[in-house]
Design brief:
The complex is a heterodimer of chains A (about 160) and B (about 325). By secondary structure, chain A is α/β, with parallel strands linked by helices. Chain A is built from 4 helices and 4 strands. In chain A, helix 3 links the parallel strand 3 and strand 4. Chain A is globular. The chains are: A alpha/beta (about 160), B alpha/beta (about 325).
Chain lengths: ~160, ~325
């Protein structure tokens, strides 16, 4: 249904000030190429990542969200990246319940020295999202739920039998 | 505020709701006489006979106060919401459904056609001829209509402008009584209305703030469902590993459920300043997990059997995503 070849995903990336943002910076200064699809937002720490940010990104048109932070044990604020890890796990479970592919949210650890790793991870995430196709949350493309309701209460043929 | 010596007009409407809000209003006991003494009740389908055309015939803005409960599930709900908005000076989103979708809003996890199928064609339904409701039908007397279901349930303020929000499933009767007292005082010139958009009949803090249970450091090694454990009557429920939503839920109920030994399920909606109720709970629950090991974290999280239901039981339609993907994908 979607032409995934021409689909240009929009990805929001959250980076932490001390490691992953510097990894992105290093990728830039060392001229490592990575796809343009990611829009980076710098937080002080991955522990600052409120899941609200992820929902807001998805609701407003992002196809995927990449959360990045310092490696476990190396957090500038001792162990806030573990908080990010736990939130990430619970967030993915919640998204699944909402019918959203949990793979649309990814967690990546990158130290300030791992510019190359950062670039590679962005590259592979873009491909993963491309394979999933656009999310197109209804607000994102101007569609609102009242634009196209069912024209009758007759269910679609594939929905006729629903287990109780 | 009386007009031509007449009593100001009052209306109450139920859209997609269970009727519990109306019962909560009647539960204010003798205070209901104050409503009658101070207001002319012009439209209240559950309590008196009235026709939509009577409301349509009213002058715009002629109803002083309308309490609107229920979510917007079909085009009839939507029509009445718009109509009552036009006719009312003060429109209050009354109760969780009108505020944030509540239980009917959980239907936003499913395709609306699937919902109709479930209602008319499941194993528990005797419908051998596969008869489904039709939106319009020709009979000798003319064409008849029934309301059309919308792809997703919407909250009142997703459809019309709302003046005040009164949360709760249902709003606590003492809170309703306090709001009626306030409105009566405003009518008598003894008080001022709060600014538009205010949440009325509730606190500005969280359920935890009203909860008397002892709180220490929260470190949870496993989440348990409440029927599976013997609950310590004094200790914070979340500390006992019972997923209690009090931390993100608006105060106003006097922490009824935790006081009675049951976890808060979040019927008073998001606390002040919370944009996405579920996101706030994800944050909070994740923070209390006592593990840094991904596998163990996963195991602990298995204890929250239905995270989406746990976090969005009342708030799905009012959340940032508003619905599950299947609800709008096929719409």
């Amino acid at each position: 249904m979607n032409n995934n070849e021409t689909f240009d995903p929009v990805i929001i990336g959250f980076t932490c000030n001390w490691c992953s943002y510097r990894a992105a910076d290093l990728a830039g200064t060392s001229r490592t190429k990575y796809p343009h699809n990611i829009r980076l937002i710098r937080l002080m720490c991955s522990g600052r990542l409120d899941p609200t940010f992820v929902f807001k990104a998805l609701a407003n048109g992002a196809d995927g969200v990449m959360i990045t932070g310092c490696h476990p044990g190396e957090c500038h604020y001792l162990e806030q990246n573990y908080k990010a890890l736990r939130r990430f796990h619970l967030l993915r479970r919640t998204l699944k319940g909402l019918g959203v592919e949990p793979e649309r949210v990814k967690l990546v650890w990158a130290s300030a020295a791992e510019g190359k790793k950062f670039a590679t991870e962005v590259g592979s995430f873009v491909e993963e999202i491309r394979a999933l196709g656009p999310l197109n949350w209804y607000r994102s493309n101007g569609r609102s739920p009242d634009d196209s309701g069912p024209t009758s209460h007759e269910p679609a043929p594939d929905l006729k039998e629903v287990p109780a | 505020m009386t007009v031509n010596g007449n009593k100001p007009k009052f209306a109450m409407y139920w859209a997609a709701s269970c009727g519990g809000c109306e019962i909560a209003v009647l539960n204010i006991h003798e205070k209901i006489l104050d409503v009658d003494a101070n207001f002319d009740v012009v439209f209240w389908p559950v309590a008196m006979d009235a026709k939509y055309k009577d409301v349509e015939a009213m002058e715009d803005g002629s109803i002083l106060l309308t309490l609107f409960n229920g979510g917007i599930r079909n085009d009839e709900n939507e029509h009445i919401a718009k109509l009552l908005r036009r006719k009312s000076k003060i429109l209050v989103a009354f109760g969780s459904c009108a505020n944030e979708g509540c239980i009917p809003g959980l239907a936003n996890l499913s395709d609306s056609r699937e919902i109709v199928s479930t209602a008319f064609n499941t194993i528990s339904t005797d419908n051998p001829k596969q008869i489904y409701p039709m939106i319009s039908y020709d009979v000798p007397e003319g064409e008849i209509h029934i309301p059309k279901i919308l792809p997703v349930l919407k909250t009142l303020d997703q459809v019309v402008d709302v003046d005040y929000y009164m949360p709760g499933c249902p709003p606590e009767s003492h809170q309703i009584a306090a709001v009626i007292d306030l409105v009566v005082q405003v009518l008598q010139g003894k008080a001022e209305l709060p600014p538009k958009g205010t949440v009325i009949g509730a606190g500005n803090s969280t359920v935890c703030d009203e909860c008397k249970r002892a709180r220490n450091i929260k470190m949870v090694k496993s989440f348990k469902r409440i029927w599976g454990v013997e609950v310590d009557p004094e200790l914070c429920l979340l500390e006992q590993g019972i997923p209690c939503n009090g931390i993100a839920t608006r105060s106003g109920c006097n922490a009824r459920c935790p006081t009675a030994g049951a976890q808060c399920i979040g019927c008073y909606g998001p606390a002040e300043g919370v944009i996405d109720y579920g996101a706030r709970l994800i944050s909070a629950f994740a923070s209390v997990i006592d593990s840094n090991d991904p596998e163990e974290i996963d195991r602990i999280l298995d204890g929250i059997v239905d995270p989406t239901g746990q976090f969005y039981r009342f708030n799905l339609a009012g959340s940032l995503l508003k619905a599950g993907k299947p609800a709008w994908e096929k719409a």
